[in-house]
Amino acid sequence: MNDILLPIVALISGFALLIWSADEFTENGAKIANIFKVSPLIIGLIIFGFGTSAPEMLVSGLAAVDGNTGLSIGNAIGSNIFNIALVLGISAMIMPIEVHKDILKKEWIFLMVATICAGLLLYDQRLDFIDGIILSTLLALFLGYTIKEAKTKKHHEFDNLEHTVDKSQTTKTWVMLFIGLVVLVSSAKLVVWGGINVAQFFGVSDLIIGLTVVALGTSLPELAVSITSVLKKQYEMVVGNVIGSNLFNTIAVLAIPGLIHPSDVPTEVISRDYPIMLLLTVLLFLVSYKFSKKHIINRSEGFILVIVFGFYMWQLF
User: Fold this and answer.
1) Cα gap 289→57, rounded to integer Å
2) Mean pLDDT, to the nearest integer, of 3-27?
3) What is the rounded CA–CA span in Å between residue 307 and residue 216?
C-alpha cells in the first residue's frame, strides 16, 4: 500500500501546481505581449508552444540517451494526439473558440507539411541522424518565419487589458513568467512520475505507459494553458498554443531520438499512432474553417475531437 501512496500524492500535488503555474504563465505571457505590442498568436506559437513542449523534449532526450527511442517517438506522436483531440476538444466544449484566418493559411499549413514530412521519414521504420537533421532544419525554418512575422507586423490586441502594464514592471513580469514556466514543467514531471508508478503498480505495459500516461502528463501544460486562455477569452493563444506545441513535438521532439540514438521505429507507430495524428491534423482544419467571415470551433466539433480521442484509447487497450 505504501508503494502506491507516494505516486498518488505526487499526482494530486502535481495537478494543483499545474493549475497555479498555468494561470501565472498565461497572465504574464499576456503582460509581455502588452509591453512589447507582440501578437498573442506569436506568444502562443513561441512562448507557449516551446514552453509547454519542454516536458516532451526533456522526456524524449532522457529516453533517447537511455536507448528507449520508442518511448521518445511515442511521446511526441501521443502528445500531438492529446493536444488536438483532448486539449482543443475540451477547450471548445467549455467555450466555442474563434480561430484567426491567418493561422489556417500559414501556421496550420506549416504543421501539415511537417506532419507529412515526419510520416515520410518514419515510413521506412527507421529514425536516423539524417532524419534528425531534416526535422531540425524544418524547426529552424519555422522559427525564422515566426520571428520575421513578429518583427514585420505591429499588433495592438492587448491594448485593452484590464490592468495597464507599466514598462517598469518588465523585469518582474519576465521573472514571474520564468517561475511559472519552471513550476509548469516541474509539476508536469511530477505528474508523469506519479502516473508511471501508478501504471506500473497495476501492471500496465511500457508501450501503453508511453502513449498514454507520459503523453498525457507532458500534454497537461498545454491543457492547463489552453483552458485558462479560453476562460480569459484569449482564443488566439489556444489555437496558437496547440499548433505551436504540435510543431515543436513533430520537428523538435522527434528530431531528438534521431540525433542522439538512431534506431528502428515500432511498427505500431506507423500502423496505428501516426495515422490518428495525421487524421486529427486534417480535422483541426476541417472543424476550424468556415465559409463565413468567422472561423469558430463550436462545442459539437470539440465533442467530435474528444470522440476521436476515445476511439484512439479504445484501440490502445
Assistant:
1) 31
2) 84
3) 16
What are the CA-CA distances from residue 280 to residues 49, 177, 223, 265, 301 (Å)?
18, 31, 16, 21, 12
Residue 120 burial (10 A CB sphere; 0-12, 13-18, 19+): exposed
Q: What are the pLDDT digits (tens) for 205-252? A: 767 777 888 888 888 878 888 888 888 888 777 887 888 889 999 999
Q: Which grid cell is 155?
A: 499588433
Sign of CA dihedral 201, 207, 208, 209: positive
Buried b (16+ CB within 10 A) or exposed e, 131-142: bbebbbebbeeb
Among residues 72, 33, 60, the alpha carbon closest in space to that of 232 is found at: 33
* Tens digit of each residue's pLDDT (9 = 90 or more) over 108-139: 999 999 999 999 999 999 999 999 999 999 99
What does the block give as the cell for 203? 501492471
Q: How many domains does the chain have?
A: 1
Domain range for 249: 2-316
Read off the CATH number of the domain in which 41 is found: 1.20.1420.30
